[in-house]
Design goal:
Elements lengths: L2 H9 L3 H9 L1 H17 L3 H8 L3 H9 L6 H10 L13
Helix pairs in contact: 4-5
């Protein structure tokens, strides 16, 4: 196991930390999808930013999960990476 994975495992042993982490799962899922789309397109953050008419730091913020993008921003990002936006609601656990 990597050092990062070990650290994450230790941190998530704390119930409060685990609850906060799980509460942010939606934001992390969006960030993973954004990174996957950019990687599939073979683009850098700077290239996506240029295609969207924004800055590389904005793309980094979106991909970090620290910012929750609007549907319009997701659509612009999708077009910039040659992807399409799909929204799906699933039954709760």
């Amino acid at each position: 196991m990597t050092e990062l994975a070990e650290l994450k495992g230790r941190l998530l042993e704390d119930p409060e930390t685990r609850a906060e982490y799980e509460a942010m799962e939606g934001e992390y899922a969006i960030a993973r999808e954004l990174i996957a789309a950019r990687t599939r397109a073979g683009l850098s953050q700077a290239q996506v930013a240029e295609r969207m008419g924004t800055s590389q730091s904005t793309i980094a913020r979106l991909e970090s999960g620290r910012a929750l993008p609007s549907l319009r921003t997701l659509d612009r990002y999708a077009r910039a990476t040659g992807s399409r936006t799909v929204v799906r609601l699933e039954a709760g656990r």
